[in-house]
């Protein structure tokens, strides 16, 4: 009867006095006709018309009355079929009209599953029209009917239709009893009076059934059954029983093991054992070989106590390669001796000024997308496609509020207004708010987004059953889902939620759009309001907050705050260089022998090389970045300081020969050390130029800037700095004080080499200890062990960069990320996007996408549903919506969504559901006999714009405005050129999960595309974060490529500049590889993730390693000492002391200062990682390399007589 329209009633025992006194007789009605509005119910969603109590015989239906019954209840054969054409019922034509109206509301969401829709309608028809109404008051198979409907989906939301019919319980907590209880509660806005329902299990009865009441045992269809009216079984997405047998996804790959142990660890142990075995065999063979030579009187050693592997190299052993080495050294030395006499300060200044002038057009890239995502990368192309066709992703501003231990609080709305210069008027949220239902509903307030739905646990419900009687639709007309509005609850018990999530979504605009600045300004004002409230001691909430601009703002803020730290770091390095370069022969000559101007000149050379590089690339249009400003000066300073120390210390240790001019001495010294400086600088420069092959913009631009800066640093050192050193030497020769050159001291400069403090210590103590027989063996064992252990650790390094690390310590964003991970119950949205070429307007095209009755079992949305069944593997938490499904449901004549004006000025045009039925008598489409409705191509193109522009409401919840109007892009011919389907990821906590989710979504899209290949479906996932996390899919191979490209020139250049000395080149390369591998191993131990910033530092590590290694390798190769050990001692003492003073001690003080930086990125990737690089470089260059050379170093060059070697030493 009409009192039960839109209510699923099972075994109801009416609590009203009328029913308790009713007589229960076969063929008698309890109610008949309508008696008017129920005065006890206010705020109902539809007029609560109650039936008239009328205990009388059922009426025989004829003519139009019988026709209407067959139209409304055609699937209820018990009512419409009569053997003798005598049909009796207890419902009037008006009741049938009201019943049809109320059924239309539910059919809009249930029609996609025919058996559910018919079960639901059948209950109403029996309840309203049964001829035995007084005897059987709608007793039915409750659980079967409930089960047929419980899985029916609402494509627009990915939720369940049953959630609209279960009140506060929603879908997950809904049961058959709760379902019916909601239908009988007049506070639901639909039932005209209160009804109590009682489910009676078969064969059981907790309470006696009233006399005369016969439980109705009519048939209820299962969701996998065809209907009596010919409708097909429900689809898999709406009915689990209809799903095909789909095998479970294969389990994830098991960890690599060998006999139950970690396989990589076992392999690393085997490698260590093999290397140690080879080393022991080498020692034994060398010992035996040298023992035999002693017996024959050959190869007598200069020092009998030296190591067993030491041997004297005789001139007849010299090969052609050795002669090439000597020729190369002669040529380079002669070249630099002539070069060193040039005084080119003015010319250098002119060149630097010309290049640095490009800084006036310097472009600094701060957009993270431009920094870390290549323009031609897949993620960027997909983002550009999405932004072009659907518009940029909206801007998100959020507040997550909690009130621990406090009572509830009434929150006043944020009323933000400000004067906008771009708009030349006062701007408010309405100017930039993302409001998909505008302009139909443009009266939005800030707090209307979520607060009106705080207690609405079932957002799709027509009306929530609470004491407040809240509507479950937000002010902007769309549902608000609990998992987006509240957090901190268990088992979907939203009333116990600990946090309220307020989201203010703004439209996003291109950066050159004036409204982009308005959006930024609104976000600035919003942050001010929130921060002022947070500082208020009377604040009733604890909360976290963010704005779309917060990430970029915080990064820029901390960069500016940490600039003084970098300045202090450079100042410390400068002070060290000035102090360390001084000779200090006596107290009276301190101001004469100090090297303040030389140190300042060296710093200026480094600065000029960086400015020249930045200016040049500004001229050619390659933008810079904050990473370049922070890293490149540090790198060039490390390289430049090393060369400065090597040159200055070599000059101080040299004695001017009789009759030799100062310029000639500097040229001779330069000829001795410049080839080594060229070796390192050229290796590093080529290394960085090859590193520019990287696809990541930040790495590429860094490599280009660093390569040119290192090259310019070497050129300026060979010109301007040599000239400056010559001027300073003339000042020192004239005994003039530094800074006050007019003041002279009387004490003359000593005419003996000044070895300083470090060189004697290393020559007398360190080198002999390091190269002692037992020490060398221990060093080899330790470093081989470190290398093998680092290989194991390297394979376990975490890949990624958590966004928390980009924030400075104490940033409000850190608290927001903490709240987000704790309280947010769903992950970021992911859009599955189709491109032009897929024909949606054909039946096959629609079936390949949709998931309702008649759709392909492995359609696109159904495949996404299958993936959502395994969220721990697919990272899909909520399956995608589907405008195709809702469009088909919207067209279904069972609902009143799509109708056509029958007369008037709009005749033949679309008629919205809000219009009276008398104006719109024609449905858009006829009812299909099998229940599978599909428009033809003409109907598809005709009605799709109406669907997309139809605002959803109670009469037609399937309208596409807001949910789909921006999800479908059509060309001028009405063909769809782009479309998107939105799903949600599971909550993603760290960058590893974001990367895995991206990978799995791409695999899912690829699998769907392969199935739909015959229909030209090109599908890809689009997510706002893809451009940031895509790099982690390839960063391992990218890093291996970049580092390999950096290692290659170090080997080639070393071999060429040492005259094709392959052995020295290989040992040089091996040591640098070990430094790099050990660095990554320590990254694992020190929780330093591998990412693009780490890759930049690893490329830098290769460059700095060249400084630690190549100078000593060349010094060893050119040494004329008779044994490997003595040559290693000489190289360690002479060149090792300069490397230690120039590279290690220059870097360490500056690095230690960075520990005080506020930015976590600087602390981790500049302090920690650079400290690791410097310490490992120093350990390998000053400990491992001399020992390695003492065992396996190149042969001595003895192709000429010794007197000719005095300047090569």
From TrEMBL:
GO cellular component, one term: plasma membrane
GO MF, one annotated term: cholesterol binding
A Pfam short name: NPC1_MLD
Annotated localization: Endomembrane system
Membrane-spanning segments: 264-285, 339-360, 563-584, 596-620, 626-649, 669-696, 702-727, 769-795, 1039-1060, 1067-1088, 1094-1117, 1138-1157, 1177-1200
Organism per entry: Salarias fasciatus
Gene expressing this chain: npc1l1
Membrane topology, from the record: Multi-pass membrane protein
Name listed for the protein in its UniProt record: NPC1 like intracellular cholesterol transporter 1
């Amino acid at each position: 009867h009409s009192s039960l329209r839109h209510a699923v009633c099972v075994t109801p025992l009416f609590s009203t006095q009328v029913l308790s006194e009713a007589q229960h007789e076969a063929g008698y009605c309890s109610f008949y006709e309508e008696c008017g509005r129920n005065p006890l119910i206010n705020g109902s969603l539809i007029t609560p018309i109650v039936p008239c109590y009328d205990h009388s015989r059922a009426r025989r239906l004829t003519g139009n009355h019988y026709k209407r019954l067959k139209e409304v209840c055609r699937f209820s054969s018990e009512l419409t079929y009569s053997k003798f054409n005598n049909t009796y019922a207890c419902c009037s034509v008006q009741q049938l009209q009201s019943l049809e109206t109320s059924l239309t509301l539910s059919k809009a969401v249930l029609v996609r599953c025919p058996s559910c829709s018919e079960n639901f309608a059948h209950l109403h028809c029996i309840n309203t029209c049964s001829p035995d109404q007084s005897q059987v008051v709608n007793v039915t198979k409750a659980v079967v009917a409930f089960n047929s409907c419980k899985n029916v989906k609402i494509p627009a939301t990915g939720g369940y239709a049953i959630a609209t019919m279960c009140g506060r319980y929603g879908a997950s907590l809904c049961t058959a009893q709760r379902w019916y209880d909601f239908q009988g509660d007049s506070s639901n806005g639909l039932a005209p009076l209160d009804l109590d329902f009682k489910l009676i299990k078969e064969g059981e009865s907790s309470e006696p059934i009233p006399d005369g009441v016969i439980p109705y045992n009519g048939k209820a269809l299962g969701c996998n059954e065809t209907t009596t009216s010919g409708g097909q079984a429900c689809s898999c997405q709406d009915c689990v029983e209809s799903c095909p047998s789909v095998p479970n996804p294969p389990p994830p790959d098991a960890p690599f093991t060998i006999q139950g142990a970690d396989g990589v660890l076992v392999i690393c142990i085997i490698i260590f054992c093999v290397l140690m075995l080879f080393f022991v065999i080498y020692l034994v063979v060398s010992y035996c070989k040298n023992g035999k030579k002693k017996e024959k009187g050959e190869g007598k050693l200069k020092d009998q106590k030296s190591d067993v592997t030491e041997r004297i190299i005789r001139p007849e052993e010299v090969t052609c390669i050795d002669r090439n080495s000597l020729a190369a050294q002669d040529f380079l030395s002669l070249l630099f001796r002539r070069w060193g006499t040039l005084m080119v300060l003015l010319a250098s200044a002119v060149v630097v000024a010309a290049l640095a002038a490009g800084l006036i057009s310097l472009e600094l890239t701060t957009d993270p997308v431009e920094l870390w995502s290549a323009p031609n990368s897949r993620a960027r192309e997909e983002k550009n496609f999405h932004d072009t066709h659907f518009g940029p992703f909206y801007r998100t501003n959020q507040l997550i509020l909690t009130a621990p231990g406090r009572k509830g609080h009434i929150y006043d709305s944020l009323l933000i207004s400000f004067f906008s210069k771009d708009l030349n008027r006062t701007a408010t949220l309405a100017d930039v708010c993302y409001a998909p239902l505008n302009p139909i509903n443009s009266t939005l307030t800030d707090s209307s987004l979520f607060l009106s739905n705080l207690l609405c646990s079932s957002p799709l419900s027509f009306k929530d059953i609470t004491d407040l009687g809240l509507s479950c639709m937000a002010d902007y007309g769309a549902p608000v889902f609990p998992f987006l509005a509240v957090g901190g609850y268990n088992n979907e018990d939203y009333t116990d939620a600990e946090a309220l999530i307020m989201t203010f979504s703004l439209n996003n605009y291109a950066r050159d759009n004036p409204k982009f600045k308005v959006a930024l300004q609104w976000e600035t004002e919003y942050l001010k309001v929130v921060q002022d409230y947070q500082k208020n001691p009377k604040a009733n909430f604890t909360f976290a907050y963010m704005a779309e601009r917060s990430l970029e703002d915080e990064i820029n803020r901390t960069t500016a705050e940490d600039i003084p730290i970098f300045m202090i770091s450079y100042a410390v390095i400068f002070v060290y260089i000035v102090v360390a370069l001084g000779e200090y022969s006596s107290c009276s000559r301190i101001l004469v022998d100090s090297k303040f101007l030389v140190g300042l000149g060296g710093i200026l050379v480094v600065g000029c090389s960086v400015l020249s590089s930045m200016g040049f690339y500004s001229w050619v249009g390659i933008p810079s970045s904050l990473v370049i400003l922070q890293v490149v000066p540090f790198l060039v300073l490390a390289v430049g300081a090393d060369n400065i120390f090597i040159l200055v210390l070599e000059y101080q240790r040299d004695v001017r020969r009789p009759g030799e001019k100062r310029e000639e001495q500097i040229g001779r010294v330069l000829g001795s050390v410049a080839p080594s400086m060229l070796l390192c600088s050229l290796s590093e420069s080529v290394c960085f130029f090859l590193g520019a092959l990287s696809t990541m913009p930040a790495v590429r631009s860094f490599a280009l800037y660093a390569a040119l800066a290192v090259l310019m640093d070497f050129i300026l050192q060979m010109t301007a700095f040599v000239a400056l050193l010559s001027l300073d030497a003339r000042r020192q020769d004239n005994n003039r004080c530094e800074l006050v050159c007019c003041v002279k001291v009387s004490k003359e400069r000593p005419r003996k080499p000044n070895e300083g403090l470090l060189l004697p210590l290393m020559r007398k103590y360190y080198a002999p200890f390091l190269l002692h027989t037992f020490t060398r063996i221990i060093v080899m064992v330790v470093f081989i062990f470190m290398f093998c252990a680092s290989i194991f650790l390297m394979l376990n390094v975490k890949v990624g960069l958590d966004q928390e690390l980009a924030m400075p310590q104490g940033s409000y964003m850190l608290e927001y990320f903490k709240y987000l991970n704790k309280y947010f119950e769903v992950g970021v949205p992911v859009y599955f996007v189709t491109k032009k070429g897929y024909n949606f307007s054909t039946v096959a095209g629609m079936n390949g996408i949709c998931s309702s009755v008649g759709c392909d079992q492995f359609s696109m949305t159904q495949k996404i549903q299958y993936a959502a069944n395994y969220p721990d593997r697919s990272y899909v938490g909520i399956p995608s919506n589907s405008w195709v499904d809702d469009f088909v449901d919207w067209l279904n004549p069972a609902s009143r969504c799509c109708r056509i004006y029958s007369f008037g000025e709009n005749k033949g045009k679309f008629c919205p559901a809000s219009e009276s039925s008398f104006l719109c008598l024609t449905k858009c489409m006829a009812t299909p006999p099998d229940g599978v409705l599909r428009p033809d191509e003409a109907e598809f193109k005709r009605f799709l714009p109406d669907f997309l522009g139809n605002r959803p409401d109670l009469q037609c919840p399937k309208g596409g405005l807001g949910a789909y109007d921006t999800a479908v892009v059509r060309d001028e011919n009405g063909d769809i050129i782009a479309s998107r389907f939105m799903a949600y990821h599971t909550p993603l906590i760290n960058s590893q999960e974001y990367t895995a989710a991206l990978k799995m979504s791409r695999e899912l899209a690829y699998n769907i595309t392969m199935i739909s290949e015959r229909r030209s479906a090109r599908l890809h996932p689009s997510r706002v974060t893809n451009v940031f996390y895509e790099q982690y899919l390839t960063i391992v191979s990218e890093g291996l490529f970049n580092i390999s490209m950096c290692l290659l020139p170090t080997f080639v250049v070393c071999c060429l500049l040492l005259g094709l000395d392959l052995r020295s080149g290989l040992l040089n390369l091996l040591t640098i590889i070990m430094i790099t591998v050990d660095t990554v191993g320590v990254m694992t131990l020190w929780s330093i993730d591998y990412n693009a910033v780490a890759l930049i530092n690893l490329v830098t590590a290769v460059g700095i390693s060249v400084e630690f290694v190549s100078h000593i390798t060349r010094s060893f190769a050119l040494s004329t000492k008779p044994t490997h050990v003595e040559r290693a001692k000489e190289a360690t003492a002479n060149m090792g002391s300069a490397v230690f003073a120039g590279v290690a001690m220059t870097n360490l003080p500056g690095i230690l200062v960075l520990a005080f930086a506020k930015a976590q990125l600087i602390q981790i990737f500049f302090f920690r990682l650079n400290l690791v690089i410097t310490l490992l470089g120093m350990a390998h260059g000053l400990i491992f390399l001399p020992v390695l050379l003492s065992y396996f170093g190149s042969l001595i060059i003895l192709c000429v007589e010794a007197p000719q070697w005095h300047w090569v030493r």
